[in-house]
Amino acid sequence: MSRRNFVVLLILAYGLVLTTCSRPSSRVYIVEVLNEFPHDPYAFTQGLVYAENDTLFESTGLYGRSSVRQVALQTGKVENIHKMDDSYFGEGLTLLNEKLYQVVWLKNIGFIYDRRTLSNIKNFTHQMKDGWGLATDGKILYGSDGTSILYEIDPHTFKLIKKHNVKYNGHRVIRLNELEYINGEVWANIWQTDCIARISAKDGTLLGWILLPNLRKKLIDEGFRDIDVLNGIAWDQENKRIFVTGKLWPKLFEIKLHLVRHRIPDGYIERHCLNLRDNTLSLKTDID
Ligand SMILES: [Ca+2]
């Protein structure tokens, strides 16, 4: 099948059939699976980072099951694990200067680990409302807390540098979750959707959407009924590989993006990637 036919097929499969549509205000992508790798089906993935040599670091959540782990990409084998205290619910994770930084749910504290041993070497406090996602461009930390705010954080003082309110067509893009910095952009899983937002790291502009419903559907079709939502993005800068997985997913996918060149139906992104009713409610509490 030609690439054009492949893209057309996927567009039809997603219901992106053209009717009376308006031009999208940002780019939309669908994904092709290039490779599948095993992933611990008991890992409630909250943070995912690619290091090098087919090695990933992963943070998992749930009380009593939270951890930071080193994982072999090819086998999914957990090569090293730090089990967190039962009082913590692990969230976002990133790797900066040989140290792993992790935030936790419903608390303003975070943990720093030695990446070689996964030993906890220091704690920190941050100024986000909550701890959801973390990423880095190699200089600063980017953070999310479940609102529409993308935070820039100083990795030495953990003070807030700047914050961006991410919007799409005037709507706040709430539930920014797991993050990854990729070539000047911060990619964000939107919690409880099959969508990843591509956000300008410079000014918080929403640059595009990646639609990935085919991944969760594929797992369900294969009989994996107990999976949770898409979550976890990792980027191999050297080999330009993109990896994604989900909470309790038995697989991790290497994906390739395809730009949707057709117009998409009005309201498609709002329905599938945003929760407008909740978004309206959040206007009272979100930070401008
Ligand atoms: Ca990530």
Automatic annotation (TrEMBL):
Keyword Zinc part of the UniProt annotation = yes
Which keywords accompany this UniProt record?
Answer: Acyltransferase, Calcium, Metal-binding, Signal, Transferase, Zinc
Q: Does the keyword Zinc apply?
A: yes
Please name the top-level EC class of this enzyme. Answer: transferase
Residues annotated for Ca(2+) binding in this entry: 48, 178-180, 233
Superkingdom, natural source? Eukaryota
Which Cys residues form disulphide pairs? 195-273
Annotated signal peptide: 1-21
Q: What is its EC number?
A: 2.3.2.5
Where along this sequence does the record place binding of Zn(2+)?
Answer: 48, 178-180, 233
For this protein, the record's InterPro entries field holds: QCT, Quino_amine_DH_bsu
Q: Which GO terms describe its molecular function?
A: glutaminyl-peptide cyclotransferase activity; metal ion binding
Glycosylated residues? 53, 123
**Protein name, please?**
Glutamine cyclotransferase
Origin species, per record, is Carica papaya
